[in-house]
Amino acid sequence: MEYAFWDSSALVPLCVQQKPTSTIEALVIKHGMVVWWCAPVEMHSAFSRLLRMGQLTSRQLVAAQVRLEKIRSGWREIQPSDSLREMAIRLVDRFPLRSADALQLAAALAWRSGKPDGRAFISGDQQLLNAARQLGFNGIAA
Fold first, then answer.
1. Which of 47, 73, 109, 130 sits most deeply, having the most CB atoms within 10 A of its CB?
2. pTM
3. Cα-flanking dihedrals φ and ψ of residue 26, to 5°?
4. CATH homologous superfamily for the domain 2-141
5. Domain range list for the chain
6. What is the 3-class SS of 31-91, one letter each residue?
């Protein structure tokens, strides 16, 4: 199985029933998961937002959290570092990215030692995908 970098926006639908889930589930079969260290925080934030918006029940929230823990046991996590933070700073200067997205992209670059070489980068965020593609990743829309 070939590994891909998974942005949090591509992981959330694996835990809650949203429209792109079947597409993302197909990607899971093809690509192992490499994620940024902060992805679980971003995912919990998304779950809580969906609960506040009435798009998840309390029961569905608990189920999403359980699914997240199951998924976490099989992914590779990129840890924070000073060099990753500096890379994220350069990325926000170069691309129209939010700080969390820049950290995601910096983590993907760290995973590939700065050489994307066409490896898959999976995200539901178009701006992030555009930046990833410009850097040499194969951006796959989730």
1. 109
2. 0.93
3. -65, -35
4. 5'-nuclease (3.40.50.1010)
5. 2-141
6. EEEEEECCHHHHHHHHHHHHHHCCCCCHHHHHHHHHHHHHHHCCCEEECCCHHHHHHHHHH
- Which among 57, 35, 37 is positioned nearest to 48, based on CA atoms? 57
Q: Give the count of beta carbons closer than 10 Å to the beta carbon of residue 9.
A: 22
What is the β-pairing status of strands 2-6 and 31-36?
A: parallel
CA distance 51 to 47: 6
Residue 3 CB-density burial (10 A; 0-12 exposed, 13-18 middle, 19+ buried):
middle
The tens digit of pLDDT for each residue in 22-61 reads 778 789 999 999 999 999 999 999 999 999 999 999 999 9
Strands laid side by side in the 31-36 sheet: 76-78, 31-36, 2-6, 120-123, 138-141
Query: Residue 33 corresponds to which tokens in the numbers above?
Result: 């998961």
